Amino acid sequence: MKSILQILGIFSCLCYCTLGQNVSVGPDVVNIGVLCAFDSTIGRVAKVAIAAAINDINNDSSILSGTKLVAQMQDTNYSGFIGIVQALQFMEKDTVAIIGPQSSVVAHVISHVANELQVPLMSFAATDPTLTSLQYPFFVRTIHSDQFQMASVADLVDYYGWNMVTAVYIDDDYGRNGIATLGDELAKRRLKILYKAAIRPGAKKSEMAAVLVKAAMMESRVFVLHAHDDSGLAVFSLAYNLTMTSGGYVWIATDWLSAVLDSVPRLDSGLLSTMQGVLTLRQHTGNTNMKKTLVSQWSTLVKEESGGSGFLLNSFGFYAYDSVWMLAHALDAFFSSGGNISFSPDPRLHAVAGGALNLDALSIFDGGMLLLEKIRKVNFMGAAGPVKLDSDGNLIHPAYDIINIIGSGLRTIGYWSNYSGLSIVSPETLYKKPPNGTIENQKLRAVFWPGETTTTPRGWVFANNGNELRIGVPNRVSYRQFVSADNQTGMVSGFCIDVFAAAINLLPYPVAYRFIPFGSGRENPSYTQLINQIVTDEFDAVVGDVAIVTNRTKVVDFTQPYVGSGLVILTSVKSQGSDGWAFLQPFTIRMWLVTGVFFLIVGTVVWLLEHRINDDFRGPPAKQVITVLWFSFSTLFFAHREDTRSTLGRFVIIIWLFVVLIIQSSYTASLTSILTVQQLTSPIRGIDSLIASDDPIGFQVGSFAESYLVHELGVSPSRLKSLGSPDEYKAALDLGPRKGGVVAIVDERPYVELFLTNHDRFAIVGAEFTKSGWGFAFPRDSQLAVDLSTAILTLSETGDLQRIHDKWLSTGPSSATTDLQPDRLHVYTFSGLFLICGAACVAALAVHACVLVRQYSRHVAAEQSSGGAAISRSGRRSSIRSFLSFADHREAQYQGKGSSKDPAALAASGSSSGVSSFTSSNASSMSSR
User: Fold this and answer.
1) Alpha-carbon Rg of the chain, whole angstroms?
2) Where is this region: Disordered (predicted)?
3) φ, ψ for residue 407 (rounded to 5)?
4) Using H for helix, E for strand and C for coil, what is the string for 18-61?
5) 368-376 and 315-336 helices cross at what angle (nearest 10)?
6) Nearest CA among 345, 283, 342 for reference residue 318
7) What is the edge-to-edge ordering of all strands in the sheet holding 121-123?
8) For residues 705 and 745, what is the distance between their CA atoms, to the nearest angstrom?
9) Mean pLDDT of the chain
10) CA dist., res. 123 & res. 143, Å (int)
């Protein structure tokens, strides 16, 4: 029995220890504070949601078992001062955490108190991005930061192709910092905030109206409204009265507007009429079980809390509900880790103690750091979705609903998340797939914009200041076909002007403008100075023959080029007539020599291959030399009469005739070109030879050619001579560098081509050594430059640009060439053919030599067997002479010597005296033997 009792005791102790390790042991009551603005849209909902969360937690035995949360709620009324006082009051009552505040302005102030007393501050609505964990470590944001909301707004602006926005905001911490973040996000996408329309907190409607009127005078028609619920609704009412919500305008409101509209049980038609077509964002919440439960109980909770005044649940209510649960989970982990609630005096408060403030009651929460650590590690599924903080202290999976206000209701046109950008698919579905933020996957449903249209607004107009566009045009003296200004009437005309007018007419909106001539009228103006007039705001644009070069693109924006241009070299040329020796010009001297040598080589090779078997290549030495020469050069005309009988000879002849065919055809083509096309000569061949010389170079007054030659090509300024008109061009080139003129002129191709239509003794030499074009110049980031570029492309595609060109610029013949010297045929041009032919000759000779040596060996063997004594008596003769003698005689003789045929018959077959003597000698030898 005693043993049984001992065992039961040990078991009881083990059970007690096990339970002690798994059950949280905490105080009976934990005090928390709640700060929000009770009379605001967000505050009303948050107050009910927080009370519901505390009740659910206290009734849930699975969390904080035995510990009850007690919340003290205070109304900050958007006041930072009142928020500080209320936060200090919480600290007097041993508060371990504060849910709130709702306002970013209040959060900035109270976060200093939280840092000092180490009390976590858990805000469900303070979305200011500057409330970071680095500066305010005890500030915990339980809702998504405006950094993500402004990223979604920037993606919207980029998606619809707008380049700039006007920001309308309340000038407090919440508004300023949110808009600053928007500017950063737009800059990442190469967009910008054109104008910031700041509204003073608590401003009257008259002040708001003045701000809106000034904003309406600006160029942008895309407005981003970042405000509070009361001020935001007032802005929309004023904008509606100012017709700023009509067609052509775009309004994007941040999540404050969706919170207002979601909270109203029945949307007011008068309220909605002021914001038709507006886009707004809503903090996205998932379809979780806690959300469904809270929504189903909401009407009952509101009646109990507010006494019957109905308002609906918005997204901020879900995040407020989750904030309390987040704190409960953290407290549960805090107590499980051995944490306890205790407070210590703040030693730094002793220096300011005294008076009626009762600062001695304020103390530091000893477990604040541990509780903060547990809060940052919480991970559960709440009403809004997964509740978990990343390494930067932000809730994971930031996402927003994009809502379009249409008629009497709201329509969701898509979603934004930092996971995949804009999409018509819910974020929860996208989280199950690999991230894909490519442009092709950015999609939204159709939007009904202000003015009841589905056509995406342009997003900008000309600034409504009543002024026309001041367009500077160069007051040219020369080449007035491009731009000409009448100093008497002020009329401006020319090719460039007509192109601009035609492009302006293609724009879908009217543009008022006036041309202002720039220049003295006595010489062409400096185009660099003309462009600088845009930088100094003297002109709103520059229209004319303005080249698009690097230095200019750094200060202004250009349209699409409407004329291709580039620097070329213009110089005087003279005709090169043909003479009695023109037929030698197609080939170089080396080519003539190599060709002649090959004729002799081929003739000799064929003679060697045919000499022993072909009577056409036999006879006296003089005749054979003549035959070789005749045969060699007659192949040039395919007129050779000698027949080739050997296989090797025919092989060589076939290859040689192919080579002769190619050489003959090339010679004929080159000679035809020389005799029929006028050849021009000039000492200048291109830009390299121009730079290498020391002769003067001309350029057009005002052109960028001077700067290019000096700074890019290193030409000495002393060599440059300015010329102002086509007549000066002609005179300077006619004089030449030796008589005070120039050796060449460097100018843009359009001017040179126009000059050449009336002057035929000049030509372009070398290649165009810069590539650019002419465009219209506008200030940086000008929308008109973009639209005119599209219009210029349209003119080009429809052919109107060419028709304007033909109207102003003559299309007569011009002289232009890149190489003034005739192309002569060189040896390397035919090196491959000569190599093939040479290889064929060597191969044929090698084969022929092998066959000849073999035949000679058989002949010697036959001689030794049939007449050894005779052969021994003739041993004095050299072996080489014997071989050469053998090679010189006709092959049929030695074929007979090796057979049983009569030697007399073999002798009769020879035709030369050498063959007859050889046969007689051989016969006498045989008779003596």
Assistant:
1) 50
2) 894-929
3) 60, -120
4) HHHHHCCCCCCEEEEEEEECCCCHHHHHHHHHHHHHHHHHHCCC
5) 120
6) 283
7) 68-75, 29-36, 97-99, 121-123, 139-141
8) 10
9) 82
10) 7
Q: What whole-number distance in Å separates Cα of residue 283 and Cα of residue 125? A: 11
> Which runs of consecutive H residues, i.e. helices, occur in 647-782?
647-676, 687-692, 705-707, 726-735, 749-756
Question: What's the rounded Cα separation, in Å, for the pair 556 and 519?
Answer: 20
At 849 the three-state DSSP class reads helix
819 pLDDT more than 50? no
Please name the residue that has the structure tokens 């103690």: 353
3-state secondary structure 182-221: HHHHHHHCCCEEEEEEEECCCCCHHHHHHHHHHHHCCCEC
- Span 158-163, mean pLDDT? 91
Q: What secondary structure letter does DSSP report for 245?
A: T
Give residue 640's Cα distance to chain centre: 67
Rounded CA separation 699/706 (Å) = 6
Which among 401, 405, 403, 400 has a CA at the least distance from the CA of 267?
A: 405
Distance CA 718, CA 695 (A): 10
Name the pLDDT band for 334 (thresholds 50, 70, 90): very high
Helix or strand holding residue 400 (H, E): strand 399-406
Q: What is the dihedral of CA 146, 151, 156, 160, to 10 degrees?
A: 150
Q: What is the residue whose two structure tokens read 């500077």? A: 472
What are the pLDDT digits (tens) for 74-97? 988 877 788 888 888 887 788 999
Cα–Cα distance, 301 to 298 (Å, whole number): 5
**Can you read off the two tokens belonging to residue 487?**
């100093």
Sign of the alpha-carbon torsion through 608, 612, 618, 622? positive
CB 385 within 8 A of CB 318: no
Q: How far apart are CA 604 and CA 625, in angstroms?
A: 9
The tokens describing 660, both together, are 């002769």
Task: Round to whole Å and give the CA distance between 235 and 241.
Answer: 10
CA distance from start to end of the chain: 153
**CB of 257 within 8 A of CB of 223?**
no
pTM for this structure?
0.67
